[in-house]
Design brief:
The chain has five helices and 13 strands. The strands form three sheets. It has a nine-stranded mixed beta sheet. Strands 5-8 form a two-stranded antiparallel sheet. Strands 10-11 form a two-stranded antiparallel ribbon.
């Protein structure tokens, strides 16, 4: 498949994007990597079978109105969208983005325990995106208090969290109480005639090296373009 991979923003994409591009290409996909959002309006998007976001588009990097409309039209007209980690961040100036993704990080409101190891559980073994995936351990961030819009989300991966006091978002930060529960980590949904795959996993290069994560993303691309 021809994939347009968007990267860039305030996150360790210099680590994760080369790993992501590498395993996508090894799987036989043709990947065009761009960091400028002009890729959404200059004709590059039109030739792609799916759009892959490994990028943070909020604040100074938020998409402009033309780029937003191009993204919406591309997906709603029947194309695939693969959204990784904080790529689903719902920007202040474009709350509708959450309707596309089904939810994502919100600056100043969402939080997570410090980066560390936890188990990813398969919640729906009948979902096409779980093919070849069993529960696996990963080093990553476990997102909480996101703008989650569950209506229409078909969740198939999650993680259990016991709750407690933890440094907010990083070790050594001021501690806050984080409630326990089951937290969604991956889901699919429709937007118009298009297919949207979202995973909250994939913070950095190490998390992208995880075999379970790589299989997850490859399954997501296959599902979104199928």
């Amino acid at each position: 498949m021809k994939l347009l991979l968007m990267s860039g923003g305030s996150h360790p994409y210099e680590e994760s994007t080369p790993v992501l591009q590498g395993f996508l290409e090894r799987a036989g996909h043709q990947v065009t990597l761009r960091e400028d959002a002009d890729a959404l309006t200059d004709g590059s998007l039109e030739s792609a079978d799916a759009l892959v976001f490994n990028t943070l588009r909020s604040g100074d990097t938020e998409l402009n109105v033309s780029q937003q409309e191009a993204l919406k039209e591309y997906i709603s007209s029947g194309n695939g969208f693969v959204c990784i980690h904080i790529s689903g961040c719902v920007p202040d100036g474009w709350k509708e983005y959450g309707d596309i993704t089904g939810g994502g990080w919100v600056m100043g409101e969402s939080f997570h325990p410090p980066y560390g190891k936890f188990q990813v559980d398969v919640e729906n073994r009948d979902h096409a995106c779980t093919d070849g995936i069993s529960a696996f351990k990963t080093d990553d961030e476990l997102y909480m208090n996101i703008d989650y819009r569950g209506d229409g989300n078909d969740v198939f991966l999650s993680a259990e969290f016991e709750g407690g006091n933890f440094g907010k978002n990083r070790a050594g930060a001021e501690e806050m109480y984080m409630p326990g529960g089951t937290f969604p980590l991956a889901w699919t949904r429709s937007y118009g005639s298009g297919k949207v795959f979202v995973t909250l996993l994939g913070h950095d290069g190490e998390s992208h090296e995880n075999e379970g994560f790589q299989k997850l993303v490859l399954n997501g691309v296959d599902w979104a373009t199928g």
